From TrEMBL:
Pfam families noted in UniProt: LOR
Family affiliation: Belongs to the LOR family.
Domain of life of the organism encoding this protein: Eukaryota
Protein name stated in the entry: DUF567-domain-containing protein
Species the sequence originates in: Hyaloscypha variabilis (strain UAMH 11265 / GT02V1 / F) (Meliniomyces variabilis)
Amino acid sequence: MQNQPQSSRQIVLQPLPKAIGINPAFCVNAQKTLLMKEKVFSLALDAFHVHDENNQEVLQVRAKTFSIHHQKEFFDPQNNPLFTLKHKPFSLPRQYYGETIGDEKQLFHIQDKWHLGGARQVVTFQNLAAGTGEAIELHIAGQWIDRHATIKLGDQLVAEITRTFFNARQILGGLDTYYVTVAPGMDYSLIAAIAVALDERENENKN
């Protein structure tokens, strides 16, 4: 298929028993692969094009310039607002959170957690996608300096984020491209937000 993303290795993720996430519209019954490309000519840092394996736009990520919270606004392909990803300034450990656009109701929270093996990230939210509102906790692990991370719900792998190496835009401009594989039933808009937060976290560490 023309322009279809190809990762270095194909993984197959098991479907979840129910929808997990903050928006049921982004929980689909098939495994989904997102191709997230940083916008080359964007005036704001960390704005992304997000397409699926069929090269169809599935999300828009726009960075707000001159924002103390390093805000990223997420929209669907029809330009409907979804949520804003914000960084909590001066927070130790580092924290990010997602809010609805407009009334600023918190949807999810991402925080570093320290343990003997180093820092990991935990994502907490209420499962609005299933309509239950139950508290959900995802755990992120990986070597983000190599741009690889796994996201688990308990023992089940629900997403994997990998980087494409040595693409021309990255060599010329330092811009990043990610493949994000999402399990059936997992909210891929939430997983995309996690990928953006991890990317921003690593960029801040470099600075």
